[in-house]
Design brief:
Blueprint: E1 2-6, H1 13-19, E2 22-25, H2 56-61, E3 65-71, H3 79-86, E4 92-99, E5 102-107, E6 112-120, H4 125-141, E7 144-152, H5 158-161
Parallel strand pairs: 1-2, 1-3, 3-6, 6-7
Antiparallel strand pairs: 4-5
């Protein structure tokens, strides 16, 4: 299953729906993570908040390919995209294991394919390096086999990257 998370306007919805199985718009119409860890323990992979992100753990957890389209914010995801990723902590469990000779949380849904980040907006070389490292670490933590970061200057490039 291919999942797209994006912080772009609704004018891109038709393109994203055509190119993926699930589209999650980072439109701010949801609450930020409260840090209760209920999606880890009380209600595995389900948030207690009854909004459009209640099932986001399950959606991301079942993704073979995750594509994140985000505006650069000092070498990191936009705040709206970061809120969605924060709400997806339930894709893993509170238990720990070794993966790649490093300690990580046990995956609730197993391994995945590609964690791809498409970044737009003004960005320095140092911020690009930060983004690449962050995406690589996020991919490892969430059980993705590989990560890819693409920086675009023109939105016309989007269709070919999906």
């Amino acid at each position: 299953m291919k999942v797209i998370i994006h912080d772009l306007g609704s004018e891109y919805e038709a393109l994203f729906e055509e190119k993926s199985d699930v589209v999650v718009a980072a439109d701010g119409k949801y609450a930020p993570c409260q840090g209760c860890f209920g999606c880890w323990t009380k209600h595995p992979a389900e948030c207690f908040m009854k909004d459009k992100l209640q099932q986001v753990c399950r959606v991301i957890g079942q993704a073979d390919e995750l594509v994140i389209i985000t505006k650069n914010l000092y070498g990191a995801y936009s705040a709206a995209v970061k809120n969605i990723l924060d709400r997806s902590i339930g894709t893993s469990t509170p238990l720990s294991t070794y993966r790649g000779r490093q300690m990580h949380h046990t995956l609730r849904y197993g391994k995945h394919g590609l964690w791809k980040v498409i970044v737009y907006g003004e960005i320095s070389e140092a911020e690009k390096d930060t983004f690449r490292l962050m995406a690589e670490r996020n991919a490892i933590n969430d059980g993705f086999e590989r990560s890819e970061v693409v920086f675009i200057e023109d939105f016309s490039e989007l269709e070919g990257l999906l």
